[in-house]
Amino acid sequence: MREQQVLKKLATLDPEKDTLEIVRLIANYDFVWDTARSLEFALFRTFAVPSIGNLLAATHEFTKRPQKRYDDTDLILSEMMEHGYDSPRGSEALRKLNRIHGHFNISNDDFLYVLSTFVIEPYRWNQRFGYRNSGQKELDTSYIFWREVGGRMNIKDIPAGFWELKKFNEEYESKHFAFAEGSRKVADSTLNLFLGWYVPKFMFPVFRPVLFCFMDDALLNAFHYPKPPAILRALVNGIMNFRNIFIRLIPLRKNPVLRTKREPILSYPKGYEVKNLGAEPEKRIGEEWLKKH
Known about the structure:
The radius of gyration is 19 Å and the shape is globular. It has one domain (about 1-270). The protein contains 16 helices and no strands. It is mainly α. It has helices spanning about 1-10, 20-30, 30-45, 50-60, 60-65, 65-85, 90-100, 110-130, 135-150, 160-175, 180-195, 205-210, 215-225, 230-250, 280-285, 285-290. It is about 70% helix and about 0% strand.
């Protein structure tokens, strides 16, 4: 029922002309929970690149203020996805994103890799855990959306098309995934954040292996995390498959679920303004540190 509804809507839309409409259909109506989780793991995946993980560790944002760092990133991306990157709110979010990153000496390849995870990780997630696989029209749309965001961030040499970007993503991970102390600290702090949404702190050691079940071996190896027992992986996969049986039978929702309107936003219980998302780096870690990095 649900899949046919989505495919019927997609049949009338064009990835180039209707990019934002397709993005919203998938993220705010169909794959609502899956999109949120896959983008969380997309960002998590970037920590396995030492140049990225060590930089994030040095800012202390993920270790001292993980919830705020999560909310700021989530809201900035959601503003662009829900309102459009050229809308007043989306443009302001993009300017904020560029200003924050502009303080750091980040290579174009690292920028491009992070961008690629926003396209490739939802595809991977749906292959493993979604109630259906993403179709080519959805993949093309995701690529076009993030290509446009990347262009507005002045990211160079973006591969031409979804499959070329996927190839870049896989080759970059194969070459650059490696263990680093800073990366591990950021990863540990982020996993504790995820666990803290669902279970009390004393239960973290019990449930942490469940999160490992959502990671592939390359990611586990990069952080020196243990592989979860095969029986636990099978149990998690079984639960996700059981969930998908029900999702297939549930009609497509009539009203969108908007990340910018969710309640509560833990870091902003009284609401937020786009211009105030993300503290400026020079106020957090000092101009002298920024000049060296």
